[in-house]
Fold DUF560 domain-containing protein.
Amino acid sequence: MAIKRALLTFVLLGAAALTRAQQADFRSADSVSLARYNSANWRGLVDYARTAIAAGNDFPALRLRAAYAEMMLGRYSAALVQYQAVLKQDDRNQTALYFLSLCNSNLNRDNEADYFVRNLENKTVGGRAVRSFAITRFGIETSVKMPQIVTRGNASYTRAALKNRIGYSLSLDQSLSYFGQAFPGDRNRQFEYYGKLQYMPVANLSLLGAFHYLNSSFIASSTQNAVAFGGLKYSFAYGSLQADASTGKINGENSRQYNAALSYYPLGSLALYGASRVSLLTSGDRQNTVFSQSVGFKTGRKTWFDGLVVIGDLPGFAEADNLYIFNSIDVTTLKIAATGYYLINPNVTLYLNLLYEQKLENTNQLTYRQNSITAGLTWKF
């Protein structure tokens, strides 16, 4: 009995010593991290928090300080990781919810940003009131296309776009566009409507659905084309994964397309970003595999630049969640594009796109080049 009492006493004393050591470690981590936070020593705070968390000193205040430090260093993805860890312990933490919305917004992930607003008591983020029903974005773009072949005249394309927030988990994108091109003795005209719904049932997961209608007229004939689109997107701190498919009739032929895409921010911000996509395209009795790769980076305080390469035959090829459908009678076999962006103010962005295409003339099967210039403006509300 005496031995048992001695053993019990030893265990209790050990547990008490361990508790005192843990409390001391917690007080030290809390004190040091708070001092570095108050002195705006952001890099020092991030390094210290990483070491403290690895040693088992993990508590919400430390995560919140480390997340804010990451954000002040412009590493929004790293901040998202920390704020998401806080939500696992307290899913109504107002500070974490606020900055999760702000960091996603800084990564141009509007739907993800809106999702975290729904549980905010004060629905103002970054000085902007985030209403549950609102117009959030308007855009307009116009382009001139210049084919290097005498049997094709210059073409023009104009599009107006509007985005609405419908609650904090659902958004609606809509576009109206017009395309026109001169041919010997005739003119090709096309009017289009596009609508896309994006719904987030839970954080990080989006359900996508879209409809694209095209009304084309060429050589006294008119065709009605419609394409339906659906997909899933999983967002994580440093990017997103998406799988989607579309089906419909384009230029009288049944068309199907399956896509798998990965977008990423290696530095945790828009200082460097990219996207890779592989597509399986079936149009009539033709089946093609198409590879797309884009890379972009920040070039100045208010400027960005990105480039895009698309390789593969593209009859009826769709991009940007079926927003753009390339249903020209001349099939594109290669696309190379460069786009520059200038932030006029926090709400208005101007962009200029230069596009080179290699195309195959459908009558004589001649390969020719086409150059395009597109200018656009987007307003964010």
Q: What stands out?
A: Residues 10-22 have pLDDT under 50 and may be disordered. The chain has six helices and 18 strands. Residues 352 and 375 are 5 Å apart (CA to CA).
